[in-house]
Amino acid sequence: MKVSNGLWKEQLAGKMPEGLAREIDIFEAEINLRKLGKLEERVFAEKRLRRGVYGQRYDNGQRHDGAKVQEMPYPRRNLTKGPNTLWDAPGMQRIKIPGGGLNASQLETLAELAEEYSDGIAHITTRQDVQLHYVHIEDTPALMRRLAAAHITTREACGNSVRNVTTCPYAGVCPDEVFDVTPYCMALSKFLLGHPDTQNFGRKFKPAFSGCSQHACALANMHDLGLIAVTRTEDGKEARGFATFVGGGLGAVPYQAKLLEPFVPPEEVLPLSQAIARVYARLGEKKNRSRARIKFLIHDLGIEKFRELVLEERKQLEFDPRWKEYVADAESYHEEPLKPGRKLDRSGSEAFRRWLETNVRQQRQEGYAVATVTLPLGDITASQLRSLADVVRRFTKETVRTTVEQNFVIRWVSEDDLPELYEALEAAGLGAPGAGTIVDVVACPGTDTCKLGISSSRGLAAELRKQLIEKSYQMEEAVKNLHIKISGCFNSCGQHHVADLGFYGVSRKIGGYSLPHFQVVLGGEWANNADHYGLAVAAVPSRNIPEVVTRLTGFYAANRKNGEPFREFFRRIGKAEVKKLLEDLARPPADEAGRAAFKDWGDPRDYTLGDMGVGECAGEVISSTDFDLAAAERQLFEAQIAWEDGEVEGAAKTAYQSMLSAAKALVVTECPEAPDDPDQIVREFRSRFYDSQKFFDPYAGGKFAQYLFSAHQKAGASYTVDSARYLIDEARLFIDASHNYSTRTAAMTAR
Length: 751
Prior knowledge:
The chain is α+β, with helices and mostly antiparallel strands. Helix 2 (20-35) packs antiparallel against helix 5 (140-149) and helix 20 runs antiparallel to helix 21 (648-670). The protein folds into five domains: 8-149, 2-Layer Sandwich (Alpha-Beta Plaits); 173-331, Sulfite Reductase Hemoprotein, domain 1, CATH 3.30.413; 350-427, Alpha-Beta Plaits, CATH 3.30.70; 437-621, Sulfite Reductase Hemoprotein, domain 1 (2-Layer Sandwich), CATH 3.30.413.10; 622-751, Nucleotidyltransferases  domain 2 (Four Helix Bundle (Hemerythrin (Met), subunit A)). It is built from 24 helices and 20 strands.
């Protein structure tokens, strides 16, 4: 059976689990019970998250003390002023888009919902989902019913559940793929949605499919479950299968996925995934959320033991006919073009040729191309969604997908239609070039709407994009092809760990007041399904980050050898050289002329209350805490250098010492005669800051305190290259949390 092109998403969702309407009715009843105080908040929180409903922050556009300021020129959100509560302030609705596949009518439904329930804008995420912000929770049941009518669900878009199953947006048309993985993404999405064996996780679980190992279109190596297409010869015939990886993930501390099985035949993908889910649900951490992802379970057990448990679980599973039925149904999936494929006459305007160079790639099917619709910051307006729906109807059989780089791709475009396609996109404001290049900056929502945002990732991304576009015509090709990714905090929603140049938000204290900073992360690899993760090398004031980009890219262009990639170049020159290169940019402003540094990108307000404090004697008054935290930073940098030089044990020992130094820096604030003995430092820190919950904050200080306790418990143990790397990342986060605590207490003292 052939499925009409562009409607593969409907095949996936057309047979939604029975009772979907009933589930939405139940959720609506739960909203009413919570309003009446008859449903506990922590229980309701998980229920709404499993329906994709998030709360969001509301400090944009007004100070924390309530004093209004001028309308912010950026971010672009229309703000609803009001108290930051679930009921009185709108939140965010995440919408699940398996494999990123949509059709024209679904695009139009999203446009209608964005206008009627949101602020007229849909946001594409780094996992191919769609998010609508500023949605009132009481409107969510109606919104969900409208989506269900279009064969789209929000079920398990958030919460401790199986999240969106992502896949390469070029699957089926990529010249380099082993085979089309789309059908198997469809089958797994359908099978795991609401499955009883996936309802008792300690945290979320993210699967991804990739059609090859060398590209980064699906990032399979950084997922909880990553499946990469492979083939082998069986009885003289080519057989399809999947190299199956488990335990990958970014988050605060990134883990590389481990190979579970080198070849899993298609008919085993569903039962093996079910067995993995059962082991995770049974043995995964439940109480300590900071250790509840499957990557920690695999790290603790070891991949060999985990494999043994999964294979034993697989043997015990009762046969489920859906294992074969869902795969067989999905394998009938087929895409076709709307028009015959014809080669392109490459004449045209200069603007068209620039767009053609960066936004179009040839399909493996002769005469056809994939066109990328670049969405700055992942945003698309309701009117643009309607225009996109018109375009995909006009030129294709509605074959359009979202991407992990927050764009859309239109597949099966006849090459000779590309000039008219470009004109139609340009008329809708969707014709920007630069897809997949350095100007195509990826960013999470950050301080715009996320409660965990520390620095303005979107504001910085917008500024970088503007500056890079101005310089792009003079850039060397090697620089043009770099990737920049920005997260507003350590959680890596912007995937900063796998970028050439990654940044994540932190704050630092200057003269008793906080200053927005970003950690600069270098050494990540976007290619090869995100095969290497970067390390933080320096915290730099947010306002200096554009110069960081200019300096690093210029240094790379001038000094690379034999065409070496960015990651290999910076590994060769070493972090000490990078630190020297950025040293002056990492320093805070010395006088009133630097006051702009106290404002984040896109925000006219000071980052914190109060004026800049200037000490006497031509210098700034620096507290002993600041000195001690600086010492901890130095030790951590030494640990990174040692790790880079292969001195694994020395790196781990020094990283642990840096955590002790940061802990003591805080202990001294309450106990001036603080001990030097590690046992006593940790005991005092636990008593004064952890047990009292003083260290707890929205940025997960309590979670990062546990990194100190764990490192102390393992002091003297041997480390591997991987475990030493994890300890360095954990030390980085603990020191950042210590800075955040120091900043908060200084701000409270100032008030």
